[in-house]
Amino acid sequence: MARLADLGHEVVAAYLTRGEAGIPGTEAADAARIRTAEAEKACEILGARPLFLGQVDGATEVNARRYEETRKVLSDEKPDVVLCHWPVDTHRDHRAAALLTYDAWLSLGRPFALHYYEVMSGHQSQVFHTTHFVDIGATRQRKHEACFAHRSQKIEEAYPNDHGRMEVFRGMEARCDYAEAFVLHPQSPDAPGLPQGPA
Question: Which of 111, 140, 158, 172 shows a CA-CA span of 20 to 30 A to 148?
Fold first, then answer.
């Protein structure tokens, strides 16, 4: 996301929820307020515009109404590229986001390049088989700052054992120091792709 923003693209970070259930021992409204502020700070660091889709953390829905809401958002935004959760994931909200996005992509006639990303592979994302890598060496520090803006999630403590390992491993596969991995849906149109090399 930071690379695309640096290249002059408009980047939108769509949040399915506001993290209402994401801070143990905290009321939903307070958690949503805290996590919304964290998301907005992360977007500021990345150069992205936050967009909140109005579902509730831990109680996301996949039904006709939610399919239509997601379709309308993507129709209004008219993206060239969408990065979405890989659907085979142990987190219900991640699966919901993937299904809603995929359905919108289909119903809109596959108008954008659909890339899936991994989250804590082996723990959350399962059977993820990479088709594309992005060298993140030039933006890795900003990525970390954006992730660590989510102070309530204590990501700074967990990062080395999860995402940090993924960055290094994917970098080894891509023959660079640090990389992120994606799966491009093969029926994606010829659209601007992901930036491959360093900035």
Answer: 172
- Which pair of tokens denotes residue 38? 């964290």
- The C-alpha atoms of residue 139 and residue 176 are separated, in whole angstroms, by 13
Full domain range(s) for residue 165: 2-184
Distance between CA 35 and CA 41 in Å, rounded? 10
What integer is the mean pLDDT of 103-130? Answer: 96
**Whats the size of the chain, residue-wise?**
199
Q: Please report whether residue 194 resides in a domain.
A: no
Looking at 23-91, list the stretches that DSSP marks H as alpha helix, in order from N- to C-terminal side: 28-46, 64-77
Q: State the Cα–Cα distance between residues 30 and 126, nearest whole angstrom.
A: 32
Structural domain count, the chain: 1
Q: Domain containing 32 — which CATH number? A: 3.40.50.10320
Give the residues across from 162 on adjacent strands.
none
Stretch 68-78: mean pLDDT, rounded?
98
Find out whether 108 and 74 touch, Cβ atoms under 8 Å: yes
Residues 121-131, buried b or exposed e (16+ Cβ, 10 A)? beebbeebebe
CA distance 70 to 125: 22
The secondary element (H helix, E strand) that includes residue 162 is: none
